[in-house]
Amino acid sequence: MTGLDVLNLELSLPDEWQLGGGRRVVWAPRTPAFLDEPGFRDPGSYLGYPIDPVFGITLLDRDARPIRLERTSREWNPARLEVKYRSPQALVTEQRTVLGLDACVSRWTMSHAAEVSRHYWLVLWTRRPNARDGHRLADIEANPQGISLLETIDRGPDLPSLKWGCALGASFDADSWSVDAIPSSGSPSAGLNWEASPFYDLMAPGGLPGHSSRSDNGAGDVYVGLAYPFEVPPGERLVATFAAAFAPDVEQARSHLDRACAMINPIQQSEEEWINWFDDVPEFTCSDPQLQRLYWYRWAQRKIWGGYSTDAPASADDEFRITAEGDDPVGRLIEMSWHHVPDLVHAELRSLLSRNDDMLASVSLAHAVRQVLSLQPDLDFLTTLEARFRPIVRRMLEQDDSAESDSVAIDEVNAPVPTSLQEKVFGLDLLKLTCWLNEQLGRDVGSLKADIRRFGERIVEEHWDKDEAFFVDHVRSNGGTRKVKPAAGFLPMLVSLADEDQLSVLLDRLCDPEMFWTVHPVPSLSRDDRDFNPDGRWDYLRIDRPYHGRVWPTLNSLIVDALGKSIEFRAPVDRMVLVELVDRVTRLAYPEGDGERPAFHEHYNPLNGRPSAFLGRSHEGGGWLIDHLIRYVSGVRPSADGHLLIDPLPFRLQWFSLSRCFVGEHEIDVAWDHRAGLTVHINERPAGHAPVGQALSIKLPDYWPMQIKAS
């Protein structure tokens, strides 16, 4: 399957709108309100900061009267959003895209059915806040070639301000322009309303006045507009490109705008960028169309929300990039580790490491880093990793020695969020990885190994509850402290803390429908807990991000990997539990069971699978579904001794194929058929065959000898 096939066959989807070029600018409003109005009127973002709105396009007749456009159709693939409009005066096809230049582009094709020429105005315009809400504008320049400005966001007294340049223009010069500052009179209405803008009064049959005005106090909104007159003869079409480009400074933004507007067909350029993206990731096809579509849709989301480029190091942006609600940098790194371009993967890793110590201590950092080092080995990076982990590990051990309370307080509004056990498991995992790094660097690790033993024993001592037969956590409630059974109680399996007896009991708990085996597993809190609520309500109030019963994709992926640890050695019944869990986890991406329309949300109801739709679409969705499909469905799992294990689990498939999959510098191709069995090629040469139900273990020649240890 080529990248073009993915665009046209797999990802031509209804009711979708997200666009991104894989860099700083993304246009993916969570709850869009203006999809059917020309331009990008819903908010976009630059490094996560809102651009609201980006720009709008208004069609006028020759007398400067608005022409109302009725949307007749809307189609999407990752390369473009195509909207068709009609009115008595015109037929319009608008194609929107976000290029890798960080340019939001609207390509217009317009015609009419009249027997005489028709004259129109197209106005490209937007509104930006100035001297309010932390926004300041400067260096506004306007001329027929376009309008440019520098926007500054004050991020707080202790943080440097973020600046970006913006340039708006079209594929030809404007006839007239206007820049108008309007004093603040409260928050403006969302989107862009032509009648409420100053251009409604200023626009005349001769165009805009071509001036700049300033408000007395400077605080308010600045409206910028460019007016373009057109004549469309009968039987002919108008083709025009409108764009807004963004960059760290105005000069770069102008350059990006010029390049975007000079393209003969920017939509074709976007398609080529997307084809290259899909050709640079493993190709997965299978007999289940939902799994196949989900795989490619997930890769599309990774590019849309990218933000990194091999020709622009991420470190220049990481100081300013903000973390959106529901962001899962670990899941992103794990999935991106399968990408073919090492520089891109390492940029993702550097970006994650640039985050503060508190954030890194609260996520499964070591789990993600192991994945990168096993698939994209970089020996020169080991010293950097060890130095970055050292202060986090040191502080973690100091806190452990101080015997701080395990309880997590709650208030009158928020439900209990038991995180002590989860963060301790992540800490132990990071401690193990730090020990391994020091071993590879030739350093003494005796004290680290002792810390690992002590830290692990303390987790078991404090959290394994014999009565509950589960790893419990504690919360304060009603003036006291009580134990709870969070889904994080399965995570000790991820770091080999559970012995065989505990493993058996944990699996029983996982498969118990009265605890965690709900219709859509795994709820974040056991179903038999008094605080369990599948609707995410606490004291009758719906809260945005509840952890007392909702299903969270990131936690699901961690439990999948905990269960998948050494799964090749487990009993068939355990393997089937993992198969069923992965299958149910992936199906959550199809809300209401609609197999044609994948979508990601932050959390889900464990009983009926309904997502947190009131929060809008999640930007990427948590977890690492791509990894699950490669590692468990296709069975590609690098082992700790330099061998490659190919061990597909018994999913309900007739066939699957995985090609262009790289482990180190080796290209792996796997084909499986429910009759013919398993066939593997490495570097385009036959490497083995096995009947159905059997695995292959293959020694990779010249593979990086220092594999990450499984323990």
TrEMBL record:
Residues 439-612 form the Mannosylglycerate hydrolase MGH1-like glycoside hydrolase domain. One of its GO terms (biological process) is carbohydrate metabolic process. InterPro entries: 6-hairpin_glycosidase_sf, 6hp_glycosidase-like_sf, MGH1-like_GH. It holds the Pfam family MGH1-like_GH. It comes from the Bacteria. This is Mannosylglycerate hydrolase MGH1-like glycoside hydrolase domain-containing protein. It comes from Kolteria novifilia.
